[in-house]
Structures are given as C-alpha cells and as structure tokens.
Write a structure and sequence with these properties.
mainly alpha; 71% helix; 0% strand
Length: 102
C-alpha cells in the first residue's frame, strides 16, 4: 500500500480557501472538493479563522497564542533538560569532592 504524500498549505492558500467559504458563501464541502482538500482540514481552517477574529467559543486559543504556547513548551522542555544535566553534574562534583577531601 502506498501512502499519499502529506500536502502543506501556506497561510495565503488557507486564507483564500476560508474566504471562499466565509465571504462567497460556498459550502465547506464544495470548496474542499474544488480545491482538492479534505473537508475536515478546511473546516478546521474556517473554525480557527473564526477564533482568530474573536468569533469563536470562549477560551479557544488564537493562532498566535497556539504558536506562543508551542514555543514556550519547547523552551520548557529544553530548560528541564538543562536542569537535569546540572543536577547530575552537581551530584557528580559533590561526590568527587567528598572522596578527594579524605
């Protein structure tokens, strides 16, 4: 079985697809068929556009907030890793000092 290569779309392409749904009034299903997209992908883009414009459900993250969260999580992982390395180094040197001072 061969798998389809995952397609990627830039922000401009996503914006144009969403505009066809929101401004032109075409259905998500029709726009998805016309552009060769899955309905679920286009529906997600339309929903995220609503959230970004402040029209979505309360508490949902905007695209900008999602990106910031992604960056902060990555930084948090890196910092936790650095702390673990420093703990191990501290324990190593503390053990080394206690044996050499005897």
């Amino acid at each position: 079985m061969t798998r389809k290569k995952r397609r990627t779309f830039n922000d401009e392409q996503k914006t144009e697809a969403v505009k066809l749904v929101r401004v032109c009034g075409e259905s998500i299903a029709q726009v998805a068929r016309d552009l060769g997209l899955t309905e679920s992908s286009l529906r997600n883009w339309v929903n995220q556009d609503k959230i970004d414009k402040g029209e979505g459900p309360e508490g949902e993250l905007t695209t900008e907030e999602r990106e910031e969260l992604r960056v902060l999580r990555r930084e948090n992982r890196r910092l936790r890793s650095e702390v673990e390395i420093l703990k191990k180094a501290t324990a190593f040197f503390a053990r080394d000092n206690s044996t050499s001072s005897r």
